[in-house]
Design a protein that fits this description.
- Helices cover 30% and strands 26% of the residues.
- It is built from 11 helices and 23 strands.
- Strands 1, 2, 3, 4, 5, 6 and 18 form a 7-stranded mixed beta sheet that branches.
- Strand 19 and strand 20 form a beta hairpin.
């Protein structure tokens, strides 16, 4: 027997959940298929648990600075195992919350892994071995991505980012492989929880794609804190007992590094395994599903959103893509997602956030003579008494002819919170003069954005 719907959504992550609930609100009969836990990467093994670990690891710095503010905390110790337990409990709560929200929205949750059997049909294979066939006029693919393991001997002995949230305890020393935001965030988390960290970076700098000066500020702070960064280094093999245990990582130069665990943070790829896209005729370009500006694949009634399209792989983007799809198809409110102005953040310690063009991008697009960079670098008031810690960096990238702010970047505490507000101004076409005539909120770090000299 085949169950018929208006819309089948494959994947109950951020994009799929947003699309399913929005479509149902317009009266569509919707089924959402999920073989794992409801919530997807962000809720279960990404943004949410990671940010909780960031908060937990940051207490190391607070405790260190406490005496300068008159607080003497004798006998303080970190129980990383307790933090991990508490984070998993919060993830469990959110998982149940999202299941309840689907029910409230009138969306049918179909547990199991979905696979196309034709352009309009999907077979769902459940964990108990049973299967169920679904049919719909439209199908949305929102299955997200998965961490990529490099093809080196012993890669299966290492962790990927998903595994970090399942650990019961942490070893004394971890090697982190990668120079992107996931690698840097986990290097800082582990260091904050008392783990010695060596980070191997294939290139010559961290955080490729972010503003180079801002990424250098993060690099300097990480090294100052005691994280060992090794550039132009890649792993060749991993040997030893399955992590966590006694492992040896051998680099491309033959150097051997002993550790208790290896984290491979070397990128993510769309999760296409098992979808049987060929049965539906859905085209794949490279490793991703190709879509147009309306999230439509080459098959007119099949759509895709989020990381499976490998465009801008961020949770808010997937959510907006899912809602834009539902608004357009079911709500008679056609709209397209603007992928050109997306704020982003790295929850390293210190935090990095930015929106708009980096200095390098602005120069490449407009020419060095057409761009002016305004910056401020100083020790924040929060570090005045401790007299230590990284300096804050704030940057405005301005087009000289129009005065328009092309980019805004920050490294320092609460950078993401501040840049979120700056993104509104930049999205509205704000100029440096608009920033200048905005009254400063004193004393704050953010006031430097409106007091930078011309």
């Amino acid at each position: 027997m085949t169950d018929c719907y208006d819309l089948i959504v494959l994947g109950a992550g951020s994009g799929g959940l947003a699309a399913a609930k929005r479509a149902a609100s317009y009266g569509a009969r919707v089924a959402i298929v999920e073989g794992d836990r409801v919530g997807g990467t962000c809720v279960i093994r990404g943004c949410v648990p990671k940010k909780l670990l960031v908060y937990g690891s940051a207490y190391r710095h607070l405790v260190h600075d406490a005496p300068s503010f008159g607080w003497h905390l004798d006998g303080v110790r970190c129980e990383a195992a307790q933090l991990l337990v508490n984070v998993r409990a919060e993830v469990d709560r959110l998982n149940q919350l999202h299941i309840g929200l689907l029910e409230k929205a009138g969306v049918d949750l179909v547990p199991g892994w979905g696979s196309f059997t034709g352009p309009e049909t999907v077979t769902v294979s459940a964990a108990d071995g049973s299967s169920r066939e679904l049919r719909a006029a439209r199908i949305l693919i929102a299955v997200g991505g998965r961490p990529h393991r490099p093809a080196i001997p012993g890669a299966d002995l290492a962790w990927v980012s998903d595994d970090m949230f399942l650990l019961e305890q942490l070893p004394e020393h971890v090697v982190v492989v990668g120079g992107g935001f996931i690698a840097c965030e986990f290097a800082c988390i582990l260091h904050g929880l008392g783990v010695a960290v060596t980070q191997l970076v294939r290139g010559d700098h961290l955080l490729r794609g972010f503003d180079r000066e801002a990424s250098r500020a993060v690099q300097d702070a990480m090294e100052e804190q005691g994280i060992t960064l090794r550039f132009a280094h890649t792993p060749a093999a991993i040997t030893g007992e399955c992590a966590p245990g006694e492992l040896t990582l051998t680099t491309q130069s033959g150097e051997q590094i002993g550790c208790g665990g290896v984290l491979l943070a070397t990128g993510r790829k769309p999760f296409l395994r098992g979808l049987n896209l060929e049965a539906a005729g859905v085209a794949v370009e490279g490793d991703a599903i190709a879509v147009d500006a309306d999230q439509r694949t080459n098959v007119p009634h099949i759509y895709a959103v989020g990381d499976v399209t490998d465009r801008v792989n961020l949770t808010p983007v997937a959510v907006d893509e899912g809602r834009a799809f539902a608004d357009t198809v079911y709500g008679q409110r056609p709209r397209q997602v603007d992928h050109d102005l997306v704020a982003s953040a790295v929850f390293s310690q210190p935090e990095l956030a930015g929106v708009g063009l980096t200095e390098e991008q602005a120069i490449a697009r407009h020419g060095a003579e057409a761009v002016r960079v305004h910056r401020a670098r100083f020790r924040p008031m929060s570090q005045a008494l401790p007299g230590r810690g990284p300096r804050v960096l704030l940057k405005l990238i301005v087009e000289i002819a129009s005065g328009r702010v092309l980019g805004c970047h920050m490294v320092g505490d609460h950078a993401a919170e501040i840049i979120q507000m700056a993104a509104i101004a930049i999205g509205m076409g704000a100029t440096k003069a608009d920033f200048d005539r905005t009254m400063a909120l004193h004393p704050s770090v953010a006031e430097e954005f409106v007091t930078m000299p011309n």
